[in-house]
Amino acid sequence: MRRRPGWRSEAEAMARPTRKKLVAIVESPHLARLLALLEEAGATGFTVLDGREGRGLEGEWRRNDVVGAVEKKVVIAITNAETAEAVLTAAEGFFARYPGIIYAHDVEVVRGERF
Amino acid sequence: MRRRPGWRSEAEAMARPTRKKLVAIVESPHLARLLALLEEAGATGFTVLDGREGRGLEGEWRRNDVVGAVEKKVVIAITNAETAEAVLTAAEGFFARYPGIIYAHDVEVVRGERF
Amino acid sequence: MRRRPGWRSEAEAMARPTRKKLVAIVESPHLARLLALLEEAGATGFTVLDGREGRGLEGEWRRNDVVGAVEKKVVIAITNAETAEAVLTAAEGFFARYPGIIYAHDVEVVRGERF
Amino acid sequence: MTDIFALAAANLTSPAVLFFALGVFAGVARSDLNVPEAVARGLALYLMLAIGFKGGVAVSQQGLTVELLLAALAGVVLSFAMPVIAFALLRAFTRLDRATAAASAAHYGSISVVTFVAGSEFLQMSGMVASGHMVAVLALMETPAILTGLMLAGRAADGPDARTRSELLREVLLNGSVVLLMGSFAIGWISGEPGMARLDPFVNGLFQGVLALFLLDMGLVAARRLSGARKLGFAGGVFGIVMPLIGAGLALATAALIAMSPADAAALMILAASASYIAVPAAMRIALPQADPSVYLTLSLAITFPFNLAVGIPLYAAAARLALGG
Amino acid sequence: MTDIFALAAANLTSPAVLFFALGVFAGVARSDLNVPEAVARGLALYLMLAIGFKGGVAVSQQGLTVELLLAALAGVVLSFAMPVIAFALLRAFTRLDRATAAASAAHYGSISVVTFVAGSEFLQMSGMVASGHMVAVLALMETPAILTGLMLAGRAADGPDARTRSELLREVLLNGSVVLLMGSFAIGWISGEPGMARLDPFVNGLFQGVLALFLLDMGLVAARRLSGARKLGFAGGVFGIVMPLIGAGLALATAALIAMSPADAAALMILAASASYIAVPAAMRIALPQADPSVYLTLSLAITFPFNLAVGIPLYAAAARLALGG
Amino acid sequence: MTDIFALAAANLTSPAVLFFALGVFAGVARSDLNVPEAVARGLALYLMLAIGFKGGVAVSQQGLTVELLLAALAGVVLSFAMPVIAFALLRAFTRLDRATAAASAAHYGSISVVTFVAGSEFLQMSGMVASGHMVAVLALMETPAILTGLMLAGRAADGPDARTRSELLREVLLNGSVVLLMGSFAIGWISGEPGMARLDPFVNGLFQGVLALFLLDMGLVAARRLSGARKLGFAGGVFGIVMPLIGAGLALATAALIAMSPADAAALMILAASASYIAVPAAMRIALPQADPSVYLTLSLAITFPFNLAVGIPLYAAAARLALGG
Ligand SMILES: Nc1ncnc2c1ncn2[C@@H]1O[C@H](COP(=O)(O)O)[C@@H](O)[C@H]1O
Ligand SMILES: Nc1ncnc2c1ncn2[C@@H]1O[C@H](COP(=O)(O)O)[C@@H](O)[C@H]1O
Ligand SMILES: Nc1ncnc2c1ncn2[C@@H]1O[C@H](COP(=O)(O)O)[C@@H](O)[C@H]1O
Ligand code: NA
Ligand code: NA
Ligand code: NA
């Protein structure tokens, strides 16, 4: 049987490693660019969620609009510390130009070698 | 060119500030009230996501219902410590009356002065 | 008036307890199994969100497909430390077999006795 | 009499009722069949737009009549009054707490749009065409019961504050389904026959197909809600069947009083017998969050709705015809 | 003349305009009526598919004519040119910054599909049937204005990098609505009458009903956007009404120059007068993120769109008829 | 013979095939055109409801015939048997691992609803009207192949535990599309002509338009899946075209054996040639998560589906007519 990468025996699993969780809230038209930024920094995976509504410096938006241009997406990526640092540094420039926010914090993961 | 508020040079960006991330899970009919609570406490922004299904003290719900009344929303807000404290205190009363939960934790942000 | 379980006076509320937030990203066909795993470990609630798109070891997916089989869901559960440990241990086997990830971190909660 | 049985049988083999049954079957068997909620809401919007518009066009040809005013008055009075009876029954025969009983009672004063829609189709099939203005009565009956429900819940320690009151008022007066039904009714009235000439294939051609698809989803929802039936107990379950009969009876008496046509009387009975599943739950979550939603949603969706659809509607039509001639 | 007023009045009491008004009312009154975004996008896809296909079928009967080529040329030139005028006006009379003024100007060079659809319905009702190829003109006018808008914004320090340029180019050439309109147009052209025989109940029967439901949602959106009107100031608000008149005037002059039929001229005027709310906002968010979206979305959705729908369309039709005979 | 080429050409210029091509074009060119998934699922529900209902109404007029039983038996046998051939080919000519080969093979034993729908439209256009009961065969063929696929995958160390087995059984017996197709078929059968009188504009009028819009989305999906084709290699790609031909050939032989009409034989060939993209992928993710989904989804959606739609369907129809007369 094919083992998924990162498979480990139960014994090995005990000490759970720490990784960084990055979350970015970006506008639909800039999503591709943010994902490219993640990839360039070495992230091995990401998950995108649809925003429903929100408010920030540029005012309110909601998904129930005929206009898709101001919709926001939420991007989640678990990465190692190095990649996280690279993303956050690049994100400074990104979010100076485009609307949205980014933040990071530590998380405990299983199968740590895959991030 | 107009700089977005909170823009900083790369040199300034190095020391990243810590803020609070608040997450609340609330029922659609009470969303407006929770957002008002956030605003009164001084939050400068928020993002709402649609829940799909869930379970809690009041039992199960799922979005695929004809009935919107028991749908849940997930509200994310990054705030400073003071605002977070005010929100959590006010949330005690809110969640004693209405279904849902709230939790908070520290996050590292860029452009910290905007929260 | 019926008080919701976990209701406390304001004085009691001051010292906010710490709990674990678990987040799992799983494929739709395996959601029921992950929720069962949570329940067996003693979780008292959970919330599921729809993913929109993502990438991981098995490549890309997006929700805008005619095929539901590779869609991903995001599962959030706040639990006590013991339950979290049980879930993470069980998740090792789960995610060795099925696609997706799981991670955990501490959060501050109100009404801590309900988790 | 045989005619009545024939119609009841025809109802049970109509596509609409059968698609509902298919949904219930799929739900109970835990099939993964499901209707995306955006689609279900789109179908619901369509049904309200179409029924409102058709009613308005019908009224544009009759003008504002005394019948309309009397029917509207009757509907509003019933909506205010029925929760009182429902509440008394629930408190007498079940062990539901005050808030949950009051919230449930409010559902029975209000109406269910899809029950009315299915009922109208049945009446039409039976040659009993209700007046267009019954759609306005439908919209007017949606929310008065909310106020009665809140009064019945009593003045609790944490009764509605100012913000809740304003939220509630908006829910009562400007609930989405009230606005869409009334608005479409007005638009039908204003644009009349020329308007109908344009929208006919949309509001008439598709109507029964959309209803069938929507009822499939209602069946899935009802099945999912069945799990809440244990909480109701036997008395609660019986209430979900007896209360519509009481409502229909009251409506029939009222209809006789104001000399409604048998068809209009049947429509009013269907409205009175039906229980809300959109406007009232939302209002109750705002005003009475301590009431248990699984009780009133199970009553409305898993017991009263299927009963009305399969048995109630033909029964009320037969009763109206027997009592009021025609 | 009385004819014109009768048509204008008929426009105001058409279901489409009334459903838009209902949406505005519900939005302003803060009713919880709403159309799920998936449904709204589904309706928009339908409208583009249907209008494109119908246009293509119409052209399949006439073949590729000089009129088509001239109309396409006229549309593209207008789309490139109009933003220049809009930009000059906005800079002269409002205090909008350069980027926001340029982004807003680009919206007026482009078009609004739903305005065109509503306008076509009105023209048809008035017995002025525009050529099928005006749909191709519609698609061609969607994006040239984006380029003019960017030029007007000037070469900023952080002007488009290579990646942005490629994203933009795709947006201009392969924007979803351009592809669907042009594709459906081509399919209509290729499959012709036999194709229409198959799709007729879909693309024609439902058309006005879907339009009504979509306009209900447009009304809700417009009402929500009204809150942004304060930012515009008086001069901004006036611009949102004057600019469509200028665009329509330019289009009328162009139409006269190339000897268009009154119906085609009216269609071109409607296109010129309308402002984009899909393709251009998306492009502007990519290329000019520093421009304030609440300004251009309010202008386009909350001022110009309602004006064109209620007043502009009949006005342009009347003007085309008066100026070009027919 | 010229007749066959004329029909094949007519197929390629039918709106349905052209909208699929438009979707592929938009996807390959990376346009931002997209169909919200709720809309796509709504359209899929509609197609299953309509095709099931129409089949049932047709059967209500013929009654339960030996033909139906034989066709059902033939379909189920084919569904069980075809994966064995597919598996052997994949293992012999490609380097896919056992699990991925078995999972892919299962897709070819099952069917694709939209291929059947498009095929039925083509047959109708060609004057070959298949029996209503072929819809029941369609539903019956959806899931048997899953069982064969699992057997082919072999008894792995981590073979299905009790929970997986029960999940799988539900997927096989109560898969949403099986339930909806069979349920709608039964409803059509029960409600017969009177039922059809009510739903006709819905299930017939809209059918081809909805199919066109759905195929647009299928084109977008196929294009997105094309990126997975590299993984398949040359042999894998060839398999995606040869396997439908083998399936169709087997079906033709079976049809001859049980003396089916040419139209029914063509329908059975289309079913045999088509590959699942809903029921089987879901089951394989549950039972064989180690199999690579990008392989079987690319095969089914990006190779076999377009091939059948553009080339296969007219080919099978022609072969059935040549072989079985008519
Ligand atoms: N403090 C915050 N917490 C959560 N979400 C935020 C916050 N600030 C901004 N956002 C989200 O990011 C979007 C863009 O932010 P902005 O660039 O400030 O307009 C907002 O509309 C929100 O959806
Ligand atoms: N421990 C938990 N973890 C995640 N979500 C929860 C948890 N408890 C409750 N929720 C969510 O909040 C909703 C309302 O909770 P409750 O008030 O407990 O009924 C539930 O239906 C869940 O969606
Ligand atoms: N590092 C990551 N960060 C966020 N989401 C991830 C990550 N890795 C995987 N995922 C999500 O989990 C899904 C399945 O992952 P995988 O098993 O690696 O294919 C992916 O398609 C993503 O949606
Ligand atoms: Na009632
Ligand atoms: Na314009
Ligand atoms: Na097959």
Helix count of chain D equals 15
Uncertain ranges of chain A? none
Radius of gyration from the alpha-carbon trace of chain D, in angstroms: 19 Å
Looking at the structure, the CATH topology of chain D is Na+/H+ antiporter like fold
Q: How is the main sheet of chain A built?
A: 4 strands, antiparallel
Straight-line N-to-C gap of chain D: 13 Å
Helix/strand structural class of chain A: alpha+beta
Small molecules (ligands, ions, cofactors) in the structure? adenosine monophosphate, sodium ion
Question: How would you describe this structure in keywords?
Answer:
heterohexamer, A: Alpha-Beta Plaits, two-stranded antiparallel ribbon, elongated, D: mainly alpha, Na+/H+ antiporter like fold, 15 helices, 82% helix, binds adenosine monophosphate, binds sodium ion, N-reg_PII/ATP_PRibTrfase_C (chains A, B, C), N-reg_PII-like_a/b (chains A, B, C), Nitrogen regulatory protein P-II (chains A, B, C)
Note down, in words, how this protein is organized.
The complex is a heterohexamer, with three copies of chain A (about 120 residues) and three copies of chain D (about 325 residues). With about 120 residues, chain A is α+β, with helices and mostly antiparallel strands. Chain A has helices spanning about 30-40, 80-95; strands spanning about 20-25, 45-50, 55, 60, 70-80, 100-110. Chain A has one domain: Alpha-Beta Plaits (2-Layer Sandwich). Chain A is elongated. The mean pLDDT of chain A is about 90. With about 325 residues, chain D is mostly helical. Chain D has helices at about 1-10, 15-30, 35-60, 65-95, 100-110, 115-125, 135-140, 145-155, 160-175, 175-205, 205-225, 230-255, 260-275, 280-285, 295-325. In chain D, helix 4 (about 65-95) packs antiparallel against helix 5. The structure holds adenosine monophosphate (3 copies) and sodium ion (3 copies). One sodium ion binds near residues 108, 109, 272, 274 and 275 of chain E.
